[in-house]
Amino acid sequence: MNIWSLETVNIAYFVSGSGSNFQNLEEHFREKYPKAIGKLVISNKAGIGAQERAEKLGIPFIILKPDLFTSVEAYENQLISLLEDNNIHLICLAGYLKKLPGSLISTFRNRIVNIHPALLPSFGGKGMWGHHIHEAVLQKGCKLTGVTIHLVNENYDEGPIVLQEAVPVLQDDSPEDLQKRVLTMEHELYPIAVELLTSQPWEIAGNNFKLLENNEEN
Predict the structure, then answer these.
(1) What is the pLDDT of residues 55-67, one digit of tens each?
(2) Which letter, b or e, does each residue of 65-92 get, where b requires 16 or more Cβ atoms within 10 Å of its Cβ?
(3) ∠ CA(119), CA(122), CA(123), 5° rounding?
(4) Is the distance from CB of 3 to CB of 197 less than 8 angstroms?
(5) Where in the chain are the domains?
(6) From CA 6, how far away is CA 85, in angstroms rounded?
(7) Fold assignment, 3-216
(8) How far apart are the first and last CA of the chain?
(9) Containing H/E element for 116?
(10) DSSP assignment, residue 160?
(11) Tens digit of pLDDT for each residue in 3-44?
(12) CA 147 from chain center: how many Å?
């Protein structure tokens, strides 16, 4: 499926926390990019900020946790069926802290996009999320950090990079200061990346994201 050639792109947001990136994306699409339509918000947690945001935006909020199913296979089948029944074209991870099933990644190959608050491949991998990343950046004495938008594969934070943008690390930064500055860039970059993925021809060569000229399309 070439998602850039679709007239409309149905999106499922996956969240585990406050949902600020999900809300930022959805509000951007409604105001400036109507081709992208948020259809579902899926979470592995109840009672989180993202649930209230979804309710205010009028998007169904669905909780799916593996331990509520009789088997991992039953959970994966239900998750994939839910997405397919709602004609989802693109999955946007927005602070989703659970590793995705391999069957989901395979079904939605190169149609799952994630945002990471660092410049991958640095400060990526299991356990590298939220404040842990910003603490590690400061401990290493980095002068730059940033935001990475990438497609998801079977390994944590190793999928093809779509966009990156640097954010300065200031001398007296606390992890909280740095997190706020990086979050501002996340809100700027994520909508740009989704628009790029859904409006311009591209391919994956090896593990590299490559924009195509129109005459290069397969």
Answers:
(1) 999 999 999 988 8
(2) eeeeeeeeeebbeebbebbeeeebbbbb
(3) 95
(4) yes
(5) 3-216
(6) 18
(7) Rossmann fold (3.40.50)
(8) 12
(9) strand 112-116
(10) P
(11) 999 999 999 999 999 999 999 999 999 999 999 999 999 999
(12) 12
Q: Which residue from 5, 9, 35, 7 is spatially nearest to 201, judged by alpha carbons?
A: 5
How buried is residue 202: exposed, middle or buried, by Cβ count under 10 Å (0-12/13-18/19+)? buried
Q: Which residues contact 153 (CB under 8 A, 6 or more apart)?
A: 105, 159, 160, 207
Question: In the block, which residue shows the tokens 């948020």?
Answer: 38
Strands across the sheet with 36-43, in order? Answer: 61-63, 36-43, 9-15, 90-93, 112-116, 144-151, 161-168
8-state DSSP, 58 = T
Reading the block at residue 28, the tokens are: 């951007």
- Measure the CA angle with vertex 75, ends 71 and 80; round to 5°: 145
Residues labelled catalytic: 116
pTM: 0.95
Put residue 19 in one of left, alpha, beta given phi > 0 → left and psi -120 to 50 → alpha.
left
Please return the burial class of 144, using the count of CB atoms within 10 Å of its CB with bins 0-12, 13-18 and 19+. exposed
3-class DSSP assignment, residue 194: helix
